[in-house]
Amino acid sequence: MDVIPLHLGVSHFHTPAVAVMAMQEAVGRHNTYYGPNEGLPELRYALAQRYLEDENAPVPAEQILITHGAKHAIHLYLQSLLHPGDEVVALAPYWFAFPELIRQSGGKLVTVPANPEEGYAINLEDLRQKITPDTKLLILTNPGNPTGKVYSLAELQQVAHLLEEFPNLHLLSDEIYDGLAYQGRVNSFLHFEHLRDRVAVVNGFSKSFAMSGWRIGYLIAPFDILHKATELQLKLISGVSPFLQAGAAAATQHRHQIWQHFRTDLDTRRQLVIQELEQMPKLKFTVPDAGYYFTLQVDDCLQPKDPASPFQLVEEWAAALKDQVGLEVLCGTKMGMPTAVRMSFALPEEVLESALLRLKAFAS
Amino acid sequence: MDVIPLHLGVSHFHTPAVAVMAMQEAVGRHNTYYGPNEGLPELRYALAQRYLEDENAPVPAEQILITHGAKHAIHLYLQSLLHPGDEVVALAPYWFAFPELIRQSGGKLVTVPANPEEGYAINLEDLRQKITPDTKLLILTNPGNPTGKVYSLAELQQVAHLLEEFPNLHLLSDEIYDGLAYQGRVNSFLHFEHLRDRVAVVNGFSKSFAMSGWRIGYLIAPFDILHKATELQLKLISGVSPFLQAGAAAATQHRHQIWQHFRTDLDTRRQLVIQELEQMPKLKFTVPDAGYYFTLQVDDCLQPKDPASPFQLVEEWAAALKDQVGLEVLCGTKMGMPTAVRMSFALPEEVLESALLRLKAFAS
């Protein structure tokens, strides 16, 4: 049986044509030599302009480091910030790559659960209790991956107050799905200017711009940390392809049209998934505010909740889903949600419809 | 005064048109999504085919990891091989990035001088004496950077014998300038099949293919080390842009025409530099076998050899060269040659002619 890949972090959209054209134009101008390690000025200025226009947040272009994707930006940031033994607090569920990225930089991940029953809201009291003298960093993923949760300005304000309470605590805000929010707006943590000496933002073009294969991300960080990250990029790898960055700059300039198109298309799919999932009572879900994942709680399909189930672990359930109906999903075990799976809905319409029929056949 | 950049490691050639066309064709097929972490099969197979055809060295495509440039390949290799305190032996002069790459992986660089008076030949006895129980790795750069030295098969054979003497010693052969050898042939260390469990080769497209801004390199290494490097790339950065790799694959297939063209062009320039340098008796040089650098020994222009000279350090000489006649060169201090500089001759003809006139005015 063919397997429909619902586990991937990639959408069905093509790279925006404006990005391809600008890239080709740069190649035509022979901008194929080494670019500046810190990034192409036209991309750094386009991004600075973006935060000024959309967030009213002044960010100097010099504070933006262009990296080989957002994962690389996070790695450079953690390498520049953490010392062995430092604790890093993150809400669970979290992006599956974080534990290893933190471990590689000598840090120790401490998680605070956010529950689907409460819409993955931040439990500030729980968070506060996990902060110790060894806590160096708090990681926020906004919009959430896998949850699709977008934090309100009021919620972010509470986190900002927490940072004020703990003057040595840094914050990393991973905002890579920010163009795909169905209400059209994600508040960047850059909003809190008075905390800018302890706040970093990571972002990139893979998700909101459907440019996953372009490998372009960026880091906005306090200057001392940014300088270390920039040095590290120079020493260990060098900067990003300048002609690809020209494409990313054009995409940034056309972001509103691109995002409008992506969101409208994705929202139709999101509504279809909601409509179908409502007919599968054993799968609990929350409606994502952004991005293209649903997080499905499958504990009603597992022992002990369902004594008749052949499955104890979510991995067994997911393996049967793949074997029996050809659907591959991502198990939540590595994302801090041990009885849930992540499924993407960024698929061509007929493929998504087929996937939902298969899911219903399996889980009803 | 305008400054002519003789310090850069980049040639005046445009990226080969076949690479650009293949890349654009891949973008047209929307190959703009995440590619495989280990590399695009068509590039890995093209490279395997290349070593089979050119070196008669069978390398499975599965043993080739595509990385974000050769520097990144070296970093992944060293991270996968070295433990803190391991010693790494290299001939001096060496590529300026090696000391920091080794340091970042916890290793300690130990150098063995190779002298211009002896054509930068390997002094095997000196090399043998530097090998201790802590020596994990020997680094060979062939063709040499900055020296342009190409080792004969007989010389490489001697190094192979040394490896047989020390059964725990690994070897990394950096062969990134291998397409630019004026005799048309560089022997890869992959030739020695019986040592393949301890030999790694790093290479890339920046130099021999004039694709510096594409950021594509590769690592061929023993499987256990390669697997660690591949895991590390996945965890910390993810794989290289697939559509760029399509361009690199096409360049590999057309390598003989590309290299023929580059070498013919560069050789004309090399002859011009030789002719001019012969009229500057205070600058000693060797004729490079490959690549586009001359290494100039400037000790005759410094104190104490020239008591009338205002300069003690090569940095002072190079600063005056830039200030007085607008030539920027790379000081050898960070390359293990404290009284020499590296100058590139991969420049448009009229620029190179102007540079040589300026050099003669300064150094005569």
UniProtKB/TrEMBL annotation, chains A, B:
Boundaries of every Aminotransferase class I/classII large domain copy: 3-358
Record-linked Pfam families: Aminotran_1_2
PROSITE patterns xref list: AA_TRANSFER_CLASS_1 (PS00105)
InterPro entries, alphabetized: Aminotransferase_I/II_large, AspAT/PAT-like, NHTrfase_class1_PyrdxlP-BS, PyrdxlP-dep_Trfase, PyrdxlP-dep_Trfase_major, PyrdxlP-dep_Trfase_small
EC number(s) from the headed UniProt entry: 2.6.1.-
CDD domains xref list: AAT_like
Cofactor: pyridoxal 5'-phosphate
Molecular function in Gene Ontology: pyridoxal phosphate binding; transaminase activity
Keyword line: Aminotransferase, Pyridoxal phosphate, Transferase
Transmembrane segments: none
S-adenosyl-L-methionine recorded as keyword: no
GO biological process: amino acid metabolic process
SUPFAM superfamilies: PLP-dependent transferases
Source domain of life: Bacteria
Family indicated by similarity: Belongs to the class-I pyridoxal-phosphate-dependent aminotransferase family.
Name of protein: Aminotransferase
